[in-house]
Write a sequence for this structure.
């Protein structure tokens, strides 16, 4: 299965099939993913370690262990770890296309905005 290290942590694909992909996302303390949207997929996040501060279409949601958040298709979203321990989120993606290139970054701490 696929995995990738990122400046904010890492992700690992746990399972995938027609129309779905399941990832384990690890976010280092005091790091955050890019603010982004997707054209082809929705996401469901469940926090399994730490506390996630999530932004969804301009609203902040603090999600503790066992909590979950749905990210609708096209919604601007971001996961942040504002704490001193690692954050682990299980992400379930659903849609007709689940490629890593279905990301439109709106803001990014690591210089990865498209020109």
């Amino acid at each position: 299965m696929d995995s990738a290290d990122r400046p904010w942590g890492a992700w690992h694909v746990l399972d995938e099939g027609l129309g779905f992909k399941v990832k384990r996302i690890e976010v280092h303390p005091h790091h955050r993913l890019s603010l982004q949207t997707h054209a082809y997929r929705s996401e469901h996040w469940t926090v399994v370690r730490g506390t996630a501060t999530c932004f969804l279409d301009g609203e902040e949601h603090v999600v503790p262990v066992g909590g979950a958040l749905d990210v609708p298709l096209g919604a601007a979203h971001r996961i942040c770890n504002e704490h001193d321990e690692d954050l682990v989120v299980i992400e379930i993606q659903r849609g007709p296309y689940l490629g890593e290139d279905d990301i439109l970054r709106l803001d990014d701490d690591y210089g990865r905005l498209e020109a």
In short: The longest strand covers residues 9-17. Residues 39 and 75 are 9 Å apart (CA to CA). DSSP finds no helices and twelve strands in the chain.
